[in-house]
Amino acid sequence: MSSLLSTAAHDYTVFTGTINIVNKSPITAGVEGVVISKEAAVALLHDHAFFLRCDPHFVSHRPIPPTEPGSNEEANTARRAYQVPANIEPLGSPAVKLYEVVDHVPNPVWSSSVVSKEEFVDFKDGLWVRIRSPLAVIMETRWTVRARRPSEEEDGEEEVKEGNLELVEDVDISCSKLLLSLVKGQVENNWKGIHKKIIDRLVEDAKKEKAKAGD
To answer: Which residues does residue 73 pair with via DSSP β-bridges, in sequence order?
Structure first.
């Protein structure tokens, strides 16, 4: 029996592909005459309802209970139960928020309605999300707000202005090698629009705060 299980696990690994994608967008300090703080940017990522609606394929979502009652509540218990990365310290309670998400994704493989189970973990610098979709597609994404760093395309001698921030999306995809290019393509096609919605909302909120302060 153990040899059969080992063979099955080996076969699964052979047909499973993985890839990492990192996307970054600048959040410029003082853009359009307003100041966007890191705290405001992180707080927006912690607004899960807004975050989910940034996906162009989003249809609906609902909170769901854990398979094992209480397994997502306390940070240490949730870390073990959901294999949260060791360098992420969950904030709030429950430590892992669970959702069922419906997306409309027309493509040659899935039906138009895709139902995924998603795990959200708020942490000090952003948001960590694991998505479990049909056909054993798993995506783990770390969304981080940090001080902006020069890109390889920029002049290395040119310093990034102090106070400028960037939104970083670090995605690990694991799925069948037959699906890997399709899933990768969806991430690459969607990320700019998602980042724009987040940054536009930050600018909008900052303008409102500025207007209130001027009253």
So the answer is: none
| Overall average pLDDT of the 52-72 stretch | 94
Report the Cα–Cα distance between both ends of the chain, in Å, rounded. Answer: 73
Cβ atoms within 10 A of the Cβ of 166, count? Answer: 19
Contact in structure between 143 and 128 (CB atoms under 8 Å): yes
3-state SS assignment for residue 158: coil
Tokens of 181: 């290019």
Cβ–Cβ under 8 Å, residues 90 and 84? yes
Model pTM score: 0.86
Task: Count the Cβ atoms, other than its own, within 10 Å of residue 207.
Answer: 13
Owner of token pair 């998602």? 194
Rounded Cα distance between 103 and 88, Å, is 27
- The helix or strand, by DSSP H or E, that contains position 172, with its residue range, turns out to be strand 165-176
